[in-house]
Structure formats: C-alpha cells, structure tokens
Amino acid sequence: xxxxxxxxxxxxxxxxxxxxxxxxxxxxxxxxxxxxxxxxxxxxxxxxxxxxxxxxxxxxxxxxxxxxxxxxxxxxxxxxxxxxxxxxxxxxxxxxxxxxxxxxxxxxxxxxxxxxxxxxxxxxxxxxxxxxxxxxxxxxxxxxxxxxxxxxxxxxxxxxxxxxxxxxxxxxxxxxxxxxxxxxxxxxxxxxxxxxxxxxxxxxxxxxxxxxxxxxxxxxxxxxxxxxxxxxxxxxxxxxxxxxxxxxxxxxxxxxxxxxxxxxxxxxxxxxxxxxxxxxx
Length: 281
Description:
It is built from 13 helices and 6 strands. By secondary structure, it is α/β, with parallel strands linked by helices. It folds into 2 domains: 1-49, no CATH class; 93-274, Uracil-DNA glycosylase-like domain (Uracil-DNA Glycosylase, subunit E, 3-Layer(aba) Sandwich), CATH 3.40.470.10. The radius of gyration is 39 Å and the shape is elongated. The N and C termini lie far apart (92 Å).
C-alpha cells in the first residue's frame, strides 16, 4: 500500500488522535484500528514504503535542554511553597539559655523557695574550660551570677592574670544553682535534683576540661569522700570529660600559702587545653 494514499493517511491520523484523546482522559491506551489503517501499518517497512526518518544529531543534543526547560520537569511553585523549610540546629547558646530559664523557675528542692536569685552559670557557650564550684554564696544569690564576691575576684585573677585569657572565654557555674542557707554543704537531695542541669550544660558546651573548685564540688561530682589532697594532682573522669581538682578561691583567701599548689593545678589544665598533654582518664 502506498503511504502517499491521502485517504489512508487521513484514517491513520484520525485513529491516532482518538488514541491520544483516550489516554488524556485516563482510559486504557487501546484502540480499534480500521482495516485501512491496519493495512497501512503493516505496509511500513516493505519495499516501496517511506521508512521513518531518524532523529538528527541536532535534535538529540537539544533534547536535554528541552527537558530542563519543560514546565512538566520543573517542580510546581505551589509544591515548593508547601514544603516546610529545614529547621536550623539548636545552638549551644540557645540550649544554655533554655536551661537557665528552667533553673530560674525550678523548685524541685526546698532551696528554690528560699533563694533571692537562681545562679545558672555564665560564660562562653563553646568554652574549652568549665569551672565548677559547689554552690552560690551570698553575693551570687543577690546578683544571680557565679563567683562575683571576693572569691570570684580571685578566680577572675587566676583566669585573666594567670591563664591570660578573658573570663568570658570560659564557662563558670556550680553544682547547685541555688544558695544553701548559711552556705552549708549541699545535701544529697539537692545534688540529685540539680546535677542534671550541670550535665545538660556540659553536653551543650562540650568542654575539653573541667576544673572543680574545692573539695565539696570534687567529692560531689566524683561521688567520693576522698580529701582534696588526694584528689589533686591527678586527672579524673566526669562523664567522659577530663576533670581536674584544685582549691576553692574562698579557701585560698583564708590560706594564701596554697595559691602555689593551685597554680600548679591550673598549669596542668593549661597544658591539656593546649594539647601539650592528653589526660589519661
């Protein structure tokens, strides 16, 4: 059959249009061919028929560009708007602010009802060094900040003059976030309720080293009754973080002769921070 037969071509075209319409409305892609169309299709490829023309190189090369520009290939604008934006990771500073907000509202133990101000802690949210004392004193209770009295002034001197870094470059806090009456030693219930705040702070900060200030802080965190003279001079482990013990600044104000020992402890901390030594814990 000759492909130039106008009647046969018209029949073929009409059947193809009908097939396209059937697909467009979701019907199965089947169609009944007339005898003329079937005969015409069978004739394709036989001698004397015109074979289908292969795609030119220009057409093939242009295809990827056509697909990229096609509206069907692009994501609809409405779909892009509906997709929720990825939430940014919560920063360490935001976590510490949240913990501080919880601490200021905390009344898990009786100290919450007796305080003037809670003392969550302060300093660099990415500090390599965290100083931990036992509990706030009277000055800290009034101001809501750690180590701001005479003992705090001595600690600041150790950091600024001794270590030659800024106080705001470290993080300073206490095991307890509220002052015990009369600055008495924290009791087990108070530690049980308050220590989780410290653990969360350390998890957010991720310090290289913790320096415990005083026997009570060290004994509380290490769950030991060993005296400070046995706890000093060695590295300990607090939840995977190297832990060093030194004297509390308040003790040093009463016993200045031990400032030399404290400086030895601080120098060891500095060596660990600089990478000169790797604490074995």
